[in-house]
Design brief:
The chain has helices spanning 12-29, 32-37, 55-80, 88-111, 120-144, 149-155, 158-195, 200-211, 229-245, 250-278, 280-283, and strands at residues 52-53, 118-119. It is mainly alpha-helical. It has a two-stranded antiparallel sheet. It is globular, with a radius of gyration of 21 Å. The chain binds NADP nicotinamide-adenine-dinucleotide phosphate (NAP). The site of NADP nicotinamide-adenine-dinucleotide phosphate (NAP) has 22 residues, from helix 7, helix 9 and helix 10. It comes from Hirsutella rhossiliensis.
Length: 294
């Protein structure tokens, strides 16, 4: 069964077309609003608008279609190509993608003490990111990449695959650690508000309201050196995935390139936001996201 005949899952010709779009058109278009007009309607740079969506719901609905699409393509495409058993490497890589997005799409918004609204345009761009990425990676893993043990031996020998996995998990853990540091800022604030001794009903109100829009300069871990280490760690994670998938895996390259293209301007603008909000002296010599470069 196809959800969209010839496109989802994609035929080989359509896979080639979608991949070209993902490799070349998306990186040119997605970062434009941030570099050119300096606007990005989410998080710190969210502005009041009638087109804003509630942060948590917007985050879940823009991120979750990615891993659901990948699972759907993995389930349907192999049979269309007469493949009845995929090598373990294809399943492990699909598993890594699902592990990451179970955290990012489902747990992350639930764990955040509060999230700023997300503009519907940012939501739509992120949804496009997820659908293009999952279709390309899913199709490569399900049929159009290596699908035999011999093909894998040439694509990514076992030591390379294992090292890629280790890098992926190191990036994932470090990304979670730094996300957690940001959450802790608002939890601490919540606790402080509660200790200030209101009635328990007022406490709840104060606790919820107090965290909204509350920001500090984070200091723990790699935050000592940069303001967006969680972004850098996520790039390390997907570089590990690319290493495991093999250096010729075009969808994994496109994923990493698009991540950097969309997150780098956010980090650079984010640093300007910190300087404006807290002053140059308090931000000190912290880099935005790549020590020594940005
Ligand atoms: N943005 C992207 O394009 C993108 C793409 C792929 C993956 N990711 C990953 O998704 C995760 C979140 O990304 P993001 O762009 O939303 O990161 P972010 O702007 O740093 O915000 C992360 C969360 O922490 C809060 N927060 C941020 N800075 C804070 C501070 N100084 N003090 C207190 N709370 C603070 C934010 O609250 P508010 O919402 O209220 O600002 C938000 O809930 C990261 O791990 C990133 O690697 C992001």
């Amino acid at each position: 069964m196809s959800l969209l005949d010839g496109w989802l899952p994609p035929t080989r010709a359509h896979y080639g077309l979608i991949l070209k779009l993902w490799q070349f058109a998306y990186p040119a278009v997605r970062p434009r609003p941030l570099w050119v007009i300096g606007w990005y309607g989410m998080g710190k740079t969210s502005t009041p608008s009638r087109l804003n969506l509630p942060g948590r719901a917007a985050w879940m609905t823009m991120e979750a279609p990615g891993f659901l699409t990948l699972l759907y393509v993995m389930r349907t495409l192999p049979a269309q190509h007469g493949i009845d058993d995929l090598p373990w490497q294809n399943r492990v890589l699909a598993g890594l993608f699902v592990i990451h997005y179970t955290y990012r799409a489902l747990l992350f918004p639930l764990l955040q003490p509060s999230m700023a609204p997300i503009h519907v345009l940012v939501w739509a761009m992120a949804l496009g990111f997820q659908l293009l990425n999952a279709t390309c990676l899913g199709a490569w893993l399900a049929a159009y990449g290596p699908v035999t043990a011999d093909a894998w031996a040439a694509q990514s020998p076992l030591p390379q695959f294992a090292l890629g996995l280790a890098v992926f998990y190191a990036g994932l853990s470090a990304n979670f650690f730094h996300d957690e540091e940001l959450r802790e800022i608002r939890r601490r604030r919540q606790r402080r508000e509660q200790q200030q001794g209101c009635s328990s009903k007022d406490n709840n109100k104060a606790g919820r309201g107090a965290t909204t829009n509350y920001y500090e300069i984070p200091q723990a871990g790699l935050f000592r050196y940069m303001l967006f280490p969680h972004y850098l760690c996520e790039w390390v994670e997907w570089a590990g995935f690319l290493m495991a998938a093999g250096w010729s895996c075009a969808p994994a390259w496109a994923f990493l390139t698009n991540e950097v293209c969309s997150m780098l301007p956010r980090a650079v603008r984010g640093k300007a936001w910190y300087v404006e909000r807290f002053g140059r002296e308090k931000v000190g010599r912290k880099w935005a996201v790549i020590p020594g470069v940005w």
